[in-house]
Amino acid sequence: MNLNKKLIPALIASALASTAYSSTALANDSAELEELRALVQQLEQKVKVIDRKSELAEEAAAAKKKETPVVKASEKGFGIQSADGQHEIKFRGLLQADGRVFDQGKQITQKAASGASTAGYLDNTEDAHGTALLRRVRPTIEGKVFDKYDFRFTPEFGDGKANVVDAYIDARFDPAFQFKAGKFKPFVGLERLQSGADIKFIERSYVSSILPNRDVGFSLHGDLANDRLSYALGVYNGVVDGGDNTTSSDLNNSKDFAARVFATPFKGQDNPLEGLGFGIAATYGDVTGQVKDTVNGSVTELTTGYKTEGQQTFFQYNGAGVLRSGIGENLTATGGPGASWLVHADGQRYRLAPQAYYYFGPLGIQGEYVRESQAVSVGAQNLAKTTLNNDAWQLGVSYLITGEDASFKGVKPKRNFDLNSGGWGAWELVARYSELNLDDAAFSFGALDSTALNTTLNGKAHYLYADPKASAKSAHTWTVGANWYLNPEVKFALNYSQTSFNGGGGNLSGSPTNTFADLVTQSDVRNREDERVLLARFQIAY
Amino acid sequence: MTKSLLHISLLAALALTPIAQAADISLLNVSYDPTRELYQDYNAAFAKYWKAKTGDNVTVKASHGGSGKQARAIIDGLDADVATLALAYDVDQLHEKGKLIPKDWQKRLGHNSAPYTSTIVFLVRKGNPKKIKDWDDIVKPGVSVITPNPKTSGGARWNYLAAWAYALKNNNNDEAKAKEFVGKLFKNVPVLDTGARGATTTFVERGIGDVLLAWENEAFLAKKELGPDKFEIVVPSVSILAEPTVTVVDKVVDKRKTRAVATAYLEYLYSEEGQEIAAQNYYRPTLDSVAKKYEKSFPKVNLVKVDEVFGGWQKAQKVHFADGGTFDEIYSK
Questions:
Q1: Chain B: residue nearest A407 by CA?
Q2: Could you report the predicted ipTM of this complex, rounded to two decimals?
Q3: Domains and CATH numbers, chain B
């Protein structure tokens, strides 16, 4: 409001009129004129100050308007944020449409017997088949309140599932002291902690087959030394190898403990080693699987199977199903063992996982090793108790040929793919070697000495924990591929993977006899044929 | 055979050099109020320099406002790749309240991360009608003084401390007398803007006040833009060495993957070209060769330092500008 524009001329006119009058009356009284002039100037200043204060108040009001919540829709995603940035909710999503084409490959079958006359099969594998699938379909709601309490809720609708992947709250009391509770990725595996949207390969390596996937529990974690050292300690319900805890409560009274330290000593420095990170993680639990009857089912607390890169199962512990229909005659039909032959966790399980990455310009290297020790026994009477030591490792290399900087997180192309402007996005080449080795003792051949067991097998030697005619002792995989980042959110990926096995195949020639004799013989163990598979993915993650 | 092929493919892939493709990069420089013209010139020069050096296109956006206010905006989530603020205390807040930068940020660049300096002078109307020569003249009754709010403006804090230092010097370091002196000064302030540029607007465009306490660069600029026939610069007998400081905001550059270009952006301020641009915008250069070249452009002033008179910015802030501090006492009277 320019009050002075109206008031000042009036004042001046009034002053001049007054002056004119004065000049007539007191023509030589210049002192009074000066006084009047000063008065006018003083009044003018006062009016100007009032005007300016009014102007500043308007500016302040306009600034306050900016404090209304901000609706965001950009390449960083969609969301709403309070004006002070203290509170925020984001809507995010991950969709991965995959395709797999097998040139060659097998998987373990679960061919059900259907009566005493239908025995099991010697060939307990079948050809892997190519497929198109939705690998991950994950809408996510995440955000923060009071700038300290992060939350995330992510359901999974991909790969034939419908469950909760993540549901947690993470309180950032201090960078060095944060508390996370709910269902989330335990702070253990480096490759597992990398987001499913950011992993360089279409499938994770064997290391992640052994380490836990997601679990329910809580963790104390934080960053120290200017973010150069992170730590995490956690208590969880405990999950099997590669397991995703889909239940809300624990099945046993014991808990798993996890700890991890990870250092990035050169972070923030102008140093070729700036992108170096290394650490070690461990888990410990004392777990006993529950062996129930066939009506109530059983919980072995062991992996349901290790899978190849083509997601074909190449190792399983002996279960009721395998024994019944996989490698021998229909033992259930002959009063067979069922759960009595179940291999289950029976004691301590620990995992140790040294891990490292290195990023330098467009080059990225990630390596991880895991050794697991798992106590197991057979059947409700916990016979043939032993400890199996399995390990796995992987070394992956990536290189952005378009020159972007590689990192543990996603890739931001220098120029997004756009035919009009000539941008080609970011292109990355990747290669990885990964292997998994089962303990030789997992394939022990012996007898279960108990009269309570099935009379047919009692006292007769057979494979106690896993059948090498169905399950491989080790798998070795080479993977090469390319990633095309059209923009930070959209990616095409293509991987070619070749896996060779030690064991895991039976004699497929000749005529399977399907007799009890096949179960109790060590003959006909052969290497499973190599798996050769092409995997493709089209992904959007926002 | 297949394994060999895979090995060869892998080696071939790694041997490939990056395909040259110019990147489009954007940076945000969150700065204080009167640096608009400086960074307008500097950003253009840096973009040219960076293009020639790397082939990448860099666009630097700038945000300006009261220095304290700008620091708070960064802490509250404004994605500043670099902060170029009026004083070290405001940058310190990025570490203390936001953990956005390391504690020792000031050691990362030369001259304690102050690539250029300035000082506080008086801008008066042509003919200096109130005959203002030194600090004593602006505390006299009837003299209207324009300065922004020290709570929000870095420049205002320099103004305040310069006046305080003068009063100490002329009263045998008597703090009580200095407080009384600065109290008188603020009694003469009719309106408080939030930033230095706002105060210049009040004085120059709105025609309020007899004297503007201004950054030296701001005073020179006002004189240049509006003509020497309208304003005069008065250099007081004592003023303060103002050291605006700069830093990369680590958390932001790591998130945005702009550390390299942001660091180069600040380092270039120290180059001969960067220093020339600073000097042309009336900031005192720190590079000797450029400082010598522009020696005659800047008046010689007896400059005191915050560290020497006030024991550093942390202490000065706590005593004078924190809630309940000396300024609150003075201004609420």
A1: B257
A2: 0.72
A3: 24-117+243-297 (3.40.190.10), 120-241+301-332 (3.40.190.10)
